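batch_manifest entry 22 of 60
target: RNA polymerase sigma factor 70 region 4 type 2 domain-containing protein
source organism: Actinokineospora fastidiosa
requested by: lab member K.T.
priority: normal
notes from requester: please return tokens only, no post-processing; we will run our own comparison against the previous entry in this batch. if the run fails, retry once and flag.
--- input ---
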Amino acid sequence: MGMPRPRLPIMRKPRLSSSRRPAIPGPRPTSEVRTAIAALPPVQREVLRLRLLEGLSADEVAERLSMTPAAVRLVQHRALTALRAYLASRN
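--- output ---
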């Protein structure tokens, strides 16, 4: 099957906007992040929990949730996109 793709670290430096300021300045209060996660659909919350908190691979999550690995990655992408949008709107 070949070598697994290397994983990127979860924490990255924020990208700078054209004004050279971070899009989401500073760390977020835990309650605000929890509220954003709670607003996600259940399957998105579960995929994020398993992938980010439990550290499972897309294949492992797919097996647990009866999904394909590609579907897991898509759900994760959509969940993270929704979280970014929610938190950016709270500025």
